[in-house]
Q: What sequence folds into this?
């Protein structure tokens, strides 16, 4: 298992394949296993790197006061540890917010951005009422006993989730650390990266599930499309928030074609 240490935090990641680096940043309450459909399919053409963010999977817990810039610094250390130059960097949901901050703080490690069903922070993409609702829902979820903790919020899929997806989410949920989720929640509530979007200068793919109710195409994806210079939006029909799991074949094909075009 590759890992890198950043200010005493061990950050673990999976690395498979050969070719230009493609780095994958997962969403909240998940880890590198979320991207198994991508690591298995794309490793024939890319060096695919899926991290366990600090506080998730095999990585160390997050210390008190951990910030969005701290997540970005740890992700930059992973890219540098791979040592293949600037990477195609994909972030899904909360991971997309981390990836945007990575570009703000460490633009030299980013070849392209692939933003998947994500946000410019909750403050940057959602209404105040929606943010309050999500905070209340997260607090109810975190209030249950640890053995009953199951952060599989409604709206992740357009329809009934595939059985293998349910198993995967259940396994990741069992390993979730509530304090890490609280840290993510605190950061996400206050994150607002709208000022960064018009200053992005690398090729950017927006990849969205058409039926995503967590981060709707309209207005969230359209906000990115209208603000990021030259961004490309691809919408996957019949797909919800976890588009990489619900529709892996068109998802992987879109990622492959975009990265190939900019390698």
A:
């Amino acid at each position: 298992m590759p890992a890198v240490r950043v200010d005493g935090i061990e950050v673990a990641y999976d690395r498979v394949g050969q070719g230009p680096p493609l780095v994958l940043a997962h969403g909240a309450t998940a880890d590198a296993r979320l991207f198994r459909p991508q690591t298995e399919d794309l490793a024939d053409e890319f060096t695919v790197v899926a991290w366990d963010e600090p506080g998730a999977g095999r990585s160390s817990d997050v210390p008190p006061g951990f910030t969005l810039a701290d997540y970005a610094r740890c992700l930059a250390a992973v890219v540098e540890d791979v040592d293949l130059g600037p990477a195609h960097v994909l972030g899904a949901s909360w991971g997309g917010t981390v990836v945007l901050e990575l570009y703000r703080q460490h633009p030299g490690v980013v070849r392209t951005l692939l933003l998947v069903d994500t946000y410019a922070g909750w403050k940057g993409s959602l209404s105040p009422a929606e943010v309050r609702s999500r905070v209340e829902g997260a607090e109810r979820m975190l209030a249950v006993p640890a053995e009953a903790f199951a952060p599989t919020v409604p709206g992740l899929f357009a329809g009934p989730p595939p059985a293998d997806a349910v198993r995967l989410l259940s396994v990741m949920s069992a390993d979730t650390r509530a304090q890490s989720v609280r840290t993510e929640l605190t950061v996400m509530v206050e994150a607002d990266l709208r000022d960064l979007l018009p200053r992005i200068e690398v090729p950017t793919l927006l990849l969205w599930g058409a039926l995503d109710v967590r981060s709707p195409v309209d207005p969230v994806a359209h906000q990115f499309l209208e603000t990021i210079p030259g961004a490309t939006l691809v919408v996957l029909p019949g797909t919800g928030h976890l588009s990489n799991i619900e529709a892996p074949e068109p998802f992987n094909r879109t990622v492959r074609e975009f990265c190939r075009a900019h390698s």
About this structure: The longest strand covers residues 9-16. The chain has a mean pLDDT of 94. The CA atoms of residues 46 and 198 lie 29 Å apart. The two ends are 26 Å apart (CA to CA).
